[in-house]
């Protein structure tokens, strides 16, 4: 058979299972090992296992023969067992601790040839023996706790199984007594062994790690529950029949433990809380354990209040009000209301601090949902519910008996109408078999589909009004008439209060199901002739509704489980790939023992437990009951994240709106907790899990499944594509007899919706990226992109600095500016001596030593601004390299001089940045170029001023106290400015400077040492003599003006600098200042050749580093596509000058951004036509900046762009196998999503089997049978969608509350 080759368990796992099974059956003893062990290992385990029975047998004989009082024997025996467990654990703890201290790790013998679970035993009392038989408890307090619990278990167990107790129950039947005595003591030994030693492997595994050692308590807990009923029956005779049957069930506990029918304690209590909340209180399963406990507590509080309030009218009003209130999303509303108050308070505080009169406006969604729904909507509904219920209940005696009957028929009519309206909006009607002719025939054309879908919106709005507003109020009136009294003398008062509490809440919690339940009860009481059903006369309406709700829920579960069973059974033969060697015998046995199968299904439904298919074969067991979310970890706590995770995260936010509409209108049926929806679009799957449902809200979890990378994914995806295509694609219209071609699939198509998501397109770039013409265009585009990026970046950076500052920062800057102003005024005053001058004060004549304010004639730039480096002064940062002589000389600006790149006001750049502490001081001082050669000698004799302490300010030629107590930022300020350097003796003999050093343009002399040779530097770091007063706004940062490239290399490239494009980009910047508009300022800046020159130097230097210097004498065209790909992804070719770019994070990012823009521009010009004008280039770049993110898929910015929903994303990739380059374009657009509903029981059953396989059988083989593709049950997709570590979704969202108002 085709499917028989896939193993259920491989050979290794089979051996592992057969070793583990005896431990599960006997409660922990390891009697089957995979290696040879001494006999004392087995004997010690058998002794520990039978010791409770041996001691209990002795005391049983004493009670039965010697007439020892039973309760005295119980106490003595229990105390002995406490001491036995304590002694056993204490000995094991002492021996193991002593061994750990005395034996060094290197002295311990290790058998490298042994199996990984093999143990080398040395003696009967050796440490290895104790570690193997009696491992130490992880939590030492549990040693005492487990010992006390063992005493209680064994003592009560002996009392529970005394022959006199059994004879009293079974009329002295010797056979029953002997069987129950033997099997009962075996059960006690199995339960107690886990307390002495540790928990055995359990098929009913609910979590992977037992951090708090809860597992050893599971079996003793169930045994103690049975013994507790026995104690109760001794004092309450009515419990004796229950105790009679429980003694029989007690001996079957080992079988239930072995089959995994009884849940672990944590799963048990969560399941019980959930069943009480849903079944008795009318609530919903909760999205988290904390919400479940809190909601159950509130519900029990309402129940207790209703039970003890003596006034019936007050009770009804309380149930009406609290029924509505508890059905709403209290947690979500409370957190949003608190967030709203906090936000308003914070905004008010900020507004007061800034004295800003503008009011903060909330986002529309939060404003609507919180302010309207919470403040107005819910309060109004609370008033209506309480008032309507109270008034009707008060006047109920005066209301005619026909009114409840009329309301009952109205409720039945509302049930039929809302069901029809819901089905008419779905693609299939009549149990998913008949294609709805009203539904749009095709979804390929999005606009046409949306237009036709709007016609069905009217039906949805009508249903929404009827179901959310009309139906609850009608049912409320009906219940207020029929539930009028709560007789305190009735023996069923508890159930009456439970029924009333549930009924008044259920009409809001789930109106459609409440309509069905009330309709059934109305038919039973008013339509069926009286006397037909005798029990209805003795049971009040509230209790009947409680029973009706439980029966409805379990009946629907039975039908769903039966469908799951039939599909699994039939497809095991009809699908050839699912055939196994056991298929035929399984089918035969299922047919012969079909009543047994039905009983298993019924028990499973009664317990609300999953129907567990062993290895997903048609062999079913009852899985242990568990809460709705199926796994103890928080929803969305983990996922197997990869590159596709971010796309699912973006989609999860977009899904809220269409799901909200679909849930409200009914096109996805009435969502109930535990339902699953599968969404298909393009090559992706989205799994939606309903966690919680309430009044006008639904809490969901969205999971993203990995793409179709394996054959299993492809097979199931292909089947789903066929189902959706045959459902939604009918170009020629839909006939009235069109049926579902896949009616027995686990997924039934329901609806389709349009959502903005990213569509993915990949194109191979062969012939483009490797073309010489394309690379030539790329070169030209790169230079223009650099101009665009640099100008825009600097304009934005300077505009940010000009924004208003906080008062404290502005004050500190004013303080600093005032101090600098004082210092600067003192710098132009006469120096302390004639022989000493202050560097930085304009020296016209060093020989005279006099200070004047008259400046030398200013050097002018020639028309050929290519030689800009010879026309500007140089400045060297002292903290990077020694300060050159040229960096010390500057002249005092006077009116009428050219504008420098520094404003008169000392402008601070990023003064508040604690990280960089970089301050760009614009000194307002002009560089005297004609003094550069004179200061070279001063450089060799001067000392680095930054090594001086702040107490030496008087050396700088400043009056004492002017610059004292400088902060770190202010000191950095003076470093940037070279303000107040030490006094220099101008009469000191000059030293000869080598000719090659004078050509270095400020490079330190010691760079010539250590064999490094000459490293030319183009330095633009001095004050620029701009011709425009506005040029300083676009001046380059100081750190970018030190260019480690020879002048000749840059000069040879300056002819390629696009002057026209530079001027054009200037006109696009927002440069408005001092009352002048941007056009006027841009016109002045365009005439400033110094500004253009420094940009030309920077742009061509970046271009040279990227495209010339690191290519080893080759060119870009020769390097081909590999060079483009590397630079695109940030790998700039190495050269001695490349570190200048790569080590400056800001400059590096700008260069890479410009290169990526240039690549996209080149690609668009090749495909769409070359840009022939600056206007077209502008359009390209503006579109890229506005609508496109160009980057690498591995960059964090890529994920941010996706989450921010950038309209388009572009990346360049490489296929190493085919050695091809491709482009990937993600476009945010309307995409039609196809939605189907899965069989909930099929999902629960397969998840239960998955937990059994992975956690008990440890069957993690990737080729195992139970994860092979199953096109009908969608087995592989279902396994993948489970929460980790069972499944592996690539994305799992936290609980999302979707309003359905």
UniProtKB/TrEMBL annotation:
This is Pecanex-like protein. Residues 797-905, 925-952 are annotated as: Disordered. PANTHER family: PECANEX, PECANEX-LIKE PROTEIN 4. It is found in: Membrane. Keywords: Membrane, Transmembrane, Transmembrane helix. Belongs to the pecanex family. It comes from the Eukaryota. Residues 1123-1293 form the Pecanex C-terminal domain. Its main location: membrane. It is a multi-pass membrane protein. GO terms for cellular component: membrane. The keyword Membrane applies. InterPro entries: Pecanex (IPR039797), Pecanex_C (IPR007735). The chain crosses the membrane at residues 39-59, 71-95, 141-162, 174-199, 220-238, 244-271, 292-310, 316-338, 379-397, 403-421, 586-607. The keyword tRNA processing does not apply. The gene is LOC106152688. Residues 861-873, 886-900, 927-952 have a biased composition (Polar residues).
């Amino acid at each position: 058979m085709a499917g028989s080759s896939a193993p259920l368990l491989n050979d290794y796992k089979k051996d592992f299972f057969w070793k583990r099974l005896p431990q599960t059956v006997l409660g922990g003893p390891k009697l089957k090992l995979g290696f040879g062990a001494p006999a004392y290992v087995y004997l010690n385990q058998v002794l520990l296992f039978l010791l409770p029975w041996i001691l209990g047998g002795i005391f049983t004989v004493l009670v039965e023969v010697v007439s020892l009082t039973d309760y005295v024997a119980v106490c003595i025996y229990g105390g002995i067992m406490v001491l036995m467990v304590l002694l056993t654990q204490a000995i094991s703890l002492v021996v193991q601790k002593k061994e750990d201290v005395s034996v060094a790790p290197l002295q311990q013998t290790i058998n490298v040839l042994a199996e990984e679970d093999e143990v080398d035993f040395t003696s009967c009392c050796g440490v290895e023996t104790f570690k193997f038989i009696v491992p130490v408890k992880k939590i030492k307090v549990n040693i005492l706790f487990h010992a006390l619990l063992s005493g209680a278990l064994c003592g009560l167990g002996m009392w529970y199984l005394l022959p006199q107790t059994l004879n009293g129950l079974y009329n002295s039947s010797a056979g029953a007594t002997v069987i129950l005595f033997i099997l009962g003591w075996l059960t006690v030994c199995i339960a107690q062994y886990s307390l002495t030693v540790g928990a055995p492997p359990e098929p009913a595994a609910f979590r992977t790690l037992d951090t708090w050692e809860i597992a050893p308590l599971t079996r003793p807990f169930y045994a103690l529950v049975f013994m507790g009923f026995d104690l109760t029956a001794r004092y309450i005779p009515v419990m004796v029949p229950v105790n009679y049957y429980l003694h029989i069930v007690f001996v079957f506990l080992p079988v239930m433990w072995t089959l995994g029918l009884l849940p672990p304690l944590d799963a048990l209590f969560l399941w019980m809380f959930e069943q009480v909340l849903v079944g008795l209180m009318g609530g919903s399963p909760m999205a988290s354990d904390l919400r479940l406990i809190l909601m159950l507590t509130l519900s029990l509080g309402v129940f207790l209040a209703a039970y003890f309030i003596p006034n019936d009218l007050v009770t009804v009003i309380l149930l009406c009000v609290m029924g509505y209130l508890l059905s709403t999303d209290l947690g979500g509303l409370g957190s949003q209301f608190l967030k709203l108050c906090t936000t308003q308070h914070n905004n008010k505080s900020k507004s007061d601090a800034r004295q800003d009169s503008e009011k903060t406006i909330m986002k529309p969604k939060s404003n609507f949902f919180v302010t309207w729904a919470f403040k107005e909507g819910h309060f109004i509904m609370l008033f209506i519910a309480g008032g309507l219920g109270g008034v009707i209940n008060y006047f109920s005696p005066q209301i005619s008996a026909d009114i409840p009957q009329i309301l009952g028929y109205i409720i039945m009519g509302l049930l039929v109408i809302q069901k029809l309206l819901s089905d008419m909006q779905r693609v299939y009607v009549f149990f998913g078999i008949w294609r709805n002719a009203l539904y749009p025939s095709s979804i390929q054309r999005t606009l046409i589909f949306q237009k036709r879908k709007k016609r069905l919106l009217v039906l949805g709005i009508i249903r929404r009004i009827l179901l959310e507003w009309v139906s609850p109020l009608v049912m409320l009136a009906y219940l207020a008439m029929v539930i009028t009294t709560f007789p305190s003398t009735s023996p069923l008062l508890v159930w009456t209060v439970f029924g009333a509490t549930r009924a008044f809440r259920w009409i809001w919690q789930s109106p459609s199901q409440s309509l069905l339940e009330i309709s059934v009860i109305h038919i039973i009481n008013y339509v069926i002739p009286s006397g037909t059903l005798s029990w209805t006369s003795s049971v009040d309406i509230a209790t009947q509704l409680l029973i009706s709700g439980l029966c409805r829920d379990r009946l629907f579960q039975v039908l769903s489980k039966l469908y799951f069973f039939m599909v699994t059974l039939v497809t095991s033969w009809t699908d050839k790939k699912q055939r196994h060697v056991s298929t035929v015998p399984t089918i035969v046995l299922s047919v012969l023992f079909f009543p047994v199968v039905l009983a298993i299904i019924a028990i499973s439904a009664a317990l609300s437990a999953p129907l567990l298919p062993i290895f997903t074969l048609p062999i079913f067991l009852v899985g242990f009951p568990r809460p709705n979310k199926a796994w103890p970890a928080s929803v969305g706590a983990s996922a197997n994240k990869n590159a596709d995770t971010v796309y699912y995260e973006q989609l999860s936010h977009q899904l809220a709106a269409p799901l909200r509409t679909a849930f409200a209108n009914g096109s996805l049926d009435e969502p109930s907790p535990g339902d699953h929806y599968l969404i298909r679009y393009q090559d992706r799957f989205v799994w939606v899990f309903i966690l919680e449902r309430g009044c006008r809200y639904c809490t969901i979890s969205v999971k993203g499944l990995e793409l179709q990378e394996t054959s299993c994914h492809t097979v199931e995806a292909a089947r789903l594509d066929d189902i959706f295509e045959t459902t939604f694609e009918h170009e020629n219209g839909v006939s009235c007899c069109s049926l579902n071609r896949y009616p027995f699939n686990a997924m039934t198509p329901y609806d389709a919706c349009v959502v903005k998501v990213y569509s993915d397109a990949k194109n191979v770039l062969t012939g483009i990226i490797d073309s010489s013409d394309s690379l030539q265009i790329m070169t030209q585009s790169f230079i223009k992109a650099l101009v665009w990026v640099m100008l825009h970046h600097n304009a934005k950076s300077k505009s940010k600095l000009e924004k208003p500052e906080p008062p404290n920062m502005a004050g500190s800057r004013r303080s600093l500016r005032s101090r600098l102003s004082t210092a600067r005024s003192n710098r132009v005053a006469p120096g302390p001596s004639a022989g000493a001058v202050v560097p930085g004060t304009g020296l016209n004549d060093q020989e005279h030593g006099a200070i004047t304010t008259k400046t030398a004639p200013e050097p002018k730039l020639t028309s050929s601004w290519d030689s800009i480096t010879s026309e500007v002064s140089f400045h060297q940062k002292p903290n990077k390299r020694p300060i050159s002589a040229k960096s010390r000389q500057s002249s005092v600006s006077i009116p009428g001089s050219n504008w420098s790149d520094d404003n008169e006001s000392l402008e601070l750049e990023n003064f508040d940045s604690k990280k960089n502490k970089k301050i760009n001081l614009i000194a307002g001082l002009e560089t005297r170029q004609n003094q550069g050669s004179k200061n070279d000698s001063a450089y060799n004799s001067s000392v680095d001023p930054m090594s001086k302490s702040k107490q030496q300010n008087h050396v700088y030629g400043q009056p004492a106290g002017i610059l004292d107590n400088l902060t770190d930022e202010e000191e950095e300020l003076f470093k940037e400015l070279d303000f107040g350097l030490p006094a220099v003796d101008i009469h000191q003999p000059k030293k000869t400077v080598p000719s090659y050093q004078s050509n270095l343009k400020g490079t330190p002399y010691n760079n010539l040492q250590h064999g490094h040779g000459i490293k030319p530097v183009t330095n633009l770091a001095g004050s620029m003599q701009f011709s425009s007063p506005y040029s300083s706004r676009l001046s380059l940062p100081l750190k970018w003006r030190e260019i480690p490239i020879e002048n000749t290399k840059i000069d040879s490239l300056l002819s390629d600098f696009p002057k026209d494009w530079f001027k054009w980009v200037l006109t696009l910047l927002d440069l408005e200042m001092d009352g002048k508009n941007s056009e006027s300022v841009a016109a002045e800046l365009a005439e400033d050749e110094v500004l253009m020159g420094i940009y030309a130097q920077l742009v061509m230097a970046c271009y040279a580093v990227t495209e010339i210097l690191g290519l080893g004498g080759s060119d870009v065209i020769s390097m081909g596509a590999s060079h483009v790909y590397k630079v695109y992804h940030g790998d700039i070719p190495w050269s001695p000058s490349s570190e200048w770019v790569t080590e400056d994070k800001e400059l590096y990012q700008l260069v890479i951004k410009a290169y990526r823009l240039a690549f996209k521009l080149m690609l668009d010009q090749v495909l769409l036509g070359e840009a022939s004008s600056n206007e077209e280039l502008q359009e390209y770049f503006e579109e890229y900046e506005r609508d496109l993110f160009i980057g690498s898929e591995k960059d964090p910015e890529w994920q941010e762009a996706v989450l921010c929903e950038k309209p388009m994303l572009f990346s360049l990739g490489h296929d190493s196998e085919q050695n091809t380059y491709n482009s990937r374009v993600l476009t945010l657009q309307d995409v039609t999503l196809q939605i189907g509903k899965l069989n909930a029981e099929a999902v629960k059953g397969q998840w239960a089997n998955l937990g059994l396989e992975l956690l008990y059988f440890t069957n993690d083989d990737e080729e195992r049978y139970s994860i092979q593709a199953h096109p009908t049950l969608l087995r592989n997709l279902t396994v993948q969608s489970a929460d980790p570590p069972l499944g592996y979704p690539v994305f799992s969202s936290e609980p999302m509350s979707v309003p359905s108002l």
